[in-house]
Protein: Acyl-coenzyme A thioesterase THEM4
Organism: Streptomyces roseus
Amino acid sequence: MSGRNTALTPPDDAAAPVRHPDAPAPGEPLGAHYGHCFGCGEGQPHGLHLEARAGEGVRVSAEFTVKPAHQGAPGLAHGGVLATALDETLGSLNWLLRVIAVTGRLETDFVRPVPVGTVLYLEAEVTAVAGRKIYSTAVGRIGGPQGPVAVRADALFIEVKVDHFIDNGRPEEIRAAMSDPDQVRRTRAFEVNP
Ligand SMILES: CCCCCCCC(=O)SCCNC(=O)CCNC(=O)[C@H](O)C(C)(C)COP(=O)(O)OP(=O)(O)OC[C@H]1O[C@@H](n2cnc3c(N)ncnc32)[C@H](O)[C@@H]1OP(=O)(O)O
């Protein structure tokens, strides 16, 4: 990727993020953006079933309970699953911006082991926007919303057109999502990330 700026630090001329006027009110649950999403969908038996809600500004909070299906080492959450929880929480910020964007880069720190049965309390915020690039950061705590940090991440999401999904997604899922009679579900499946 030489010649391109892939840094996770916003450039000096980056702008502050702007919460969309139609963004859900602080405290309002965001719900699943797509029923088959591994991060938040209700249609994934071993998925994370992550539940996010809007915060102030361009912030969200979320909880994810680590289940036996999420193990890496015996009794401990798999690091990739924890990265998914961070990615999903960060991705849900796009719904507050009303921007279609996908993860370009996700840098994760694993600070403490997370046992099965633990609730991971996640918080994420957009820190800056520069053109199509959305800079964001997240932490996950255990033992309570104010507990010690177990994981954290910095991310760069890149704004895309809806064609990103239509051109690249498998046709059967695209067709099914596009023909969903529920307009909100149809919109969110593509506006955020299928
Ligand atoms: C509720 C919501 C839940 C959401 C779930 C969580 C979200 C996800 O997991 S999304 C799924 C995972 N992500 C993907 O599949 C994305 C796959 N990648 C792609 O499709 C493309 O590489 C894409 C769209 C990211 C960028 O491609 P493209 O649009 O051609 O970008 P391009 O024009 O080359 O670059 C634009 C800018 O972004 C930067 N950029 C592009 N890719 C990256 C990257 N991987 N890392 C860092 N920066 C990048 C470029 O450097 C460039 O910046 P600058 O202009 O300052 O040099």
Remarks:
- Helices lie at 79-92, 94-97, 163-168, 171-178, 183-191.
